[in-house]
Amino acid sequence: MLHLLRGLAYIPMAIVYPTKIVGKKNLPKGKAVITLNHTSNMDSILLILNTWEKKYFLAKKELFTSKSRSWFLKKMGAIRIDRSIADLNAIKEAFKVLKENKKLVIFPEGTRNKNAELSLQTVKNGSAMIAIKTKTPLVPIWIFNRPKAFHLTKIMIGEPYDLSEFYGQKLTDEVLEKASEKVAQKLNETKELAELKFKKKREKNG
Asked: N or C, fewer C-beta in 10 Å, the chain?
């Protein structure tokens, strides 16, 4: 069903939201926590439509506005999360995804970045906590420019890494904050790679 839906959606979406992804080889086989900056409600959909393997992603409950939209989002891999509470059901679903050796997409900033420069906002502790508890590698992804209709969206996939130095430790606020600092560092490094790659190409093309 996913491949059928993706096939039906890909062509119109590729026309309206053309997307270029660099670094697909960095997506590992098996489970991974995929962290990316949050620029718009299109972020997850563009990533999923432009990479083959199914991915699951945490999506705010406000997106599930109708039965048809909820059905589509769930088929695409959305896990409904209520951000106003500690949504244990959503966390359990996230753990289940990784236990089944699949990929989970998380926005570490927790909310959309409305800054014009798209500089990384404060990284929350959720992605680090999930990655540590499940001993899962992380993949940093940077969306170079905010998706906009009929404009090319550029995305950079960085190299995978892990938080193994925190495995076995009691996950206090201090430990999680240190782990989240590494998550932020890797995202910023991927941002720098994206700037180098895409700006150089733009200059080359005049």
From this structure: C
Residue 142, strand partner residues: 156
Q: Which residues pair with 55 in a beta bridge?
A: 103
Task: Yes or no: say if 36 and 144 are a contact pair by the CB < 8 Å rule.
Answer: no
| Structure token pair of residue 156 | 């950079």
CATH code where residue 77 lies: 3.40.1130.10
**Number of separate domains in the chain:** 1
- Pick the closest to residue 187 from 27, 36, 28, 25 (CA basis): 36
SS3 annotation, 83-131: CCCCCHHHHHHHHHHHHCCCEEEECCCCCCCCCCCCCCCCCCCHHHHHH
Helix (H, G, I), strand (E, B) or coil at 21: strand
Residue 68 in contact with residue 89, Cβ under 8 Å?
no
Low-confidence ranges of the chain (pLDDT < 70): 1-3, 5, 201-206
The 8-class DSSP code of residue 10 comes to: H
Residues of the domain holding 52: 2-204
